[in-house]
Specification:
By secondary structure, the chain is of the alpha+beta class. Helix content is 22%, strand content 35%.
């Protein structure tokens, strides 16, 4: 672990993101908060992230950069690419479902959620949370209403959570400063190589409606380009159904 990174381990917590947001004024930039167990983990769109027991990763990264605010929205996509690279070290082939879901063999293995903290008009920081299924049994998945998997089941052996965390954090910060300078364009090639949704007919749930069409590309800002009967829609938020 690099010297300028600080770590806080919490044995039991409701949510590492919530704890980090609550304490963000006292936490330094690049503080890593991780937990042994998490009871109220959340993903995008207020979905619950189910705790599958000890040995899984529940982690939040506190970030307080002082510039390039326009690239914050793509940090979840940057983390999804970083996670895929880490998973590849274990000999598996992950994929990305727009915008930042990471799948293995069509099953979700991780959840990512970014939350900003603002006091009045002052930006206090960003909390980037991630949960990764590292050690679970198939019977545990009965608690979840989606197709999910865990790394241990994919590779056939128990995963060292701390070792995995260290690999992921090291990889994340290796190119972090360059990503802040260049934004999504810096990871676009890698992101497209991992994307499992391109050239497919999709139905995307937005806040108050759904859009259908063929996923014809990704913009330099990480937005989904959806084409339907000659009409092109640019989506910066949504959920592929």
């Amino acid at each position: 672990m690099k010297d300028n990174l600080r770590e806080i381990f919490l044995e039991n917590i409701d949510s590492t993101n919530l704890w980090a947001k609550t304490n963000i004024e006292e936490l330094e930039d690049k503080t890593i908060v991780f937990a042994g167990a998490q009871t109220q983990g959340r993903g995008r769109l207020q979905r619950k992230w189910v705790d599958l027991g000890k040995g899984n990763l529940f982690m939040s990264i506190v970030l307080k950069p002082d510039k390039n605010y326009e690239h914050y929205a793509n940090l979840t996509q940057y983390l999804s690419v970083t996670l895929c690279k880490t998973l590849e070290e274990y000999g598996i082939k992950p994929e990305i479902k727009w915008p930042n879901d990471v799948l293995v063999n069509g099953k979700k293995i991780a959840g990512i959620l970014a939350e900003t903290s603002v006091k009045g008009t002052k930006f206090k920081g960003l909390v980037l949370g991630i949960g990764v299924n590292l050690n679970a049994q198939e019977k545990d998945f009965s608690k979840i209403d989606k197709k999910v998997t865990s790394l241990n089941l994919e590779v056939g052996e128990t995963i060292d959570m701390v070792e995995f965390k260290n690999k992921l954090v090291t990889s994340f910060f290796k190119d972090y400063n360059q990503f802040l300078e260049e934004g999504f364009k810096f990871i676009k090639r890698d992101y497209l190589a991992l994307a499992n949704f391109l050239d497919k007919e999709l139905c995307v749930a937005l806040i108050n409606e759904t859009k259908t069409g063929v996923a014809s590309g990704i913009t330099d800002k990480g937005e989904l380009i959806l084409t339907n009967n000659g009409n092109e829609f640019i989506l910066n938020i949504g959920d592929i159904l």
